[in-house]
Model the fold of this input.
Amino acid sequence: MGISMQAAGPALQGLVQGLQGRKTAILGHMRPDGDCIGSQVALCRMLLAAGIDAICVNRDRIPPNMVAYAQGVTFLTGDQYVPDGRVAVAVDCADASRIGPDLLDKFGGKLWGNVDHHASNPGYAEHNIVVKTAAATCHVLAYGALRHGLACDAATAKALHLGIVTDTGRFSYASATAEVFALAAELIERGANPAETNFLVFEHESRGKLELTKRFLNTIQFHADGKICSGELTQADYAATGTTKEDKEGLVEFPRSVEGVEIAVLMEEGRDGVRGSLRGRDPRLRLDLLAGKLNGGGHVLAAGFNMLGCTLAKDRTRILGIVADHYREHAAR
Ligand SMILES: [Mn+2]
Done:
C-alpha cells in the first residue's frame, strides 16, 4: 500500500474535508522525534485553520528542545488525555502499535486517519495517506500545503521545516532530493528559520548529555577486525549525569560513523534486561534479521532488540557473539 506524492495532495484535502465537524486528536509515536512533533503540529494547525476542533496527543512528552514548535496548539501526554469523543489521526507512525497501547485504547483501538512515509506502513486506518518515497511525514504535509493549498502560516512552516530537517539528517541523506530542497525554500519564504531551528534543536544539549556522551565513548570497543563497534550505557550512567533515556538519542552515530565499521551496536542495561540499537550501512547485512535473533526487530539498516533478564556483565559476550556470527554469515553472501 502507499500512494504517490501527486495523489497525496488531493487526499490531504479530502482528509481535512472529511474531518469537518469531527473533534480530532492527532497522535504521534512513542519517544517522539522532530518529524513526529512537526507533523502533529502542522496538521493540527491546518485543521484549526479549517475550523476543526483539533488537539495533539502523544504517549510521551515533547522533547524539551522542540517545545517551542508546539506553541499555539494544545499538546497533551497520554496520561493527561481524557477520552472526549475525538477521532484519531496518526502521523509518522509505521504501525498502530507505535502510538502505545494505553493511548490507542483511549480511542477504542480505532484510527480514522494515517499520514506517514514509512515503507512498512500497512495502512492501518480508515483513511491512509502513506507516501513511501517521501523524506518525512512533514514532506508529505508540506507538499499538501504548498502545492494543494492547505493552510500554512509561519508557525506551520516552522513545524514542517523541523520535520524535514530532522528526518533528512539536516538535508544530508539520500532522501534530501531537489524537490525536498525546493519545498524547504518555500517554507523559509513562509517563515521557517534554519538558523533558529539549528540553534533550538541541535545546540541546546545539556551538560548532562555531554557527560553521558563521555561515558558512552569510554566504553567503545571494536570486534570482528573492526567491522563491529559497540558502546554501552547503564542506569548508573543516567543517574550520575542526571540524564534520561531520551538523552541516548544520536549516540549510536559515533560507532556507526567510523570508517570500516559495518554494524554499530549500542547496548543499554536497564532494570529488566539489556536493550540495544543496531545501525548499519549495507542492506545485505539485514539488521532486521539480526535483531530477530536478539528478541527484537526493525528495518534493514536500523533495528533494535530487548533481551529481558540479561545483564551486560553476564551476557555482553554472548550478545556480541551473535552479532559477529550474523555479520560473518551475511558478509560472506
Ligand atoms: Mn518520519
Q: What stands out?
A: The chain has two domains: 5-202, 207-331.
